[in-house]
């Protein structure tokens, strides 16, 4: 038996918080009867509808995807550009990306139909570490790297502490590769952090999402997460949200 709002969230219909609002608003039916009490438990045999539309009790699936540059991190796009979901047409479940990765940034992004896990990973109180490699110019000075690590004042506030490391530099070309790990999820944050220091990002790749790396994958490739990886993601999110 599972709580009704959790089942709705896991079906990808809405986040758990939104599912609770749907229940209290009288928009959820169980076996044809409207249920408004939060905490109601249901089984796999129960028929659940939201606004009269039955929800699909899909088996949860989890993918790590190497997003190429020029692909939208959404389910659909009103300009008919390629989205991350277009690479999963063979998957029968209704999957969606967890969070965003910029159009002009490549790298690791999760896709799932597990609304519960996605909602937890994107919760304001918990942003999983994300590690990027940025190819920039000019070559950053030591004090600039220190500022990136301790915090940059952006238009939407000071950034949190980050881990920053100079990976390589080319004095002839005036370029460098910098590894930076952040745990926030602001829009285009990494690019804006470098830009604030007058450093131009020529190429940006998210090489790790938490403990998940792109090892063995090429742009456009994906792999199914292993059960222990899913369990670890839930453990991390649960630990933070219960803190």
Care to describe what's here?
The strands form four sheets. Strands 7, 8, 9, 10, 13, 14, 15, 16 and 17 form a nine-stranded mixed beta sheet that branches. Helix 1 crosses helix 2 and helix 1 crosses helix 3. This protein has helices at 4-10, 16-24, 115-121, 142-150, 189-196, 227-241; strands at residues 2-3, 28-30, 33-34, 41-42, 48-50, 53-54, 62-67, 96-97, 106-112, 130-137, 153-154, 157-158, 163-170, 175-182, 200-209, 212-213, 222-224. It folds into three domains: 2-54, RNA-binding S4 domain (Structural Genomics Hypothetical 15.5 Kd Protein In mrcA-pckA Intergenic Region, Chain A), CATH 3.10.290.10; 62-125 and 212-241, Pseudouridine synthase I, catalytic domain, N-terminal subdomain (Alpha-Beta Plaits), CATH 3.30.70; 130-209, Alpha-L RNA-binding motif (Alpha-Beta Plaits). The radius of gyration is 21 Å and the shape is elongated. The chain is of the alpha+beta class and 243 residues long. Helices cover 23% and strands 30% of the residues. The model has no long low-confidence stretch (mean pLDDT 91). A hairpin with an 8-residue loop joins strand 8 and strand 9. One of its GO terms (biological process) is enzyme-directed rRNA pseudouridine synthesis. Its EC number is 5.4.99.-.
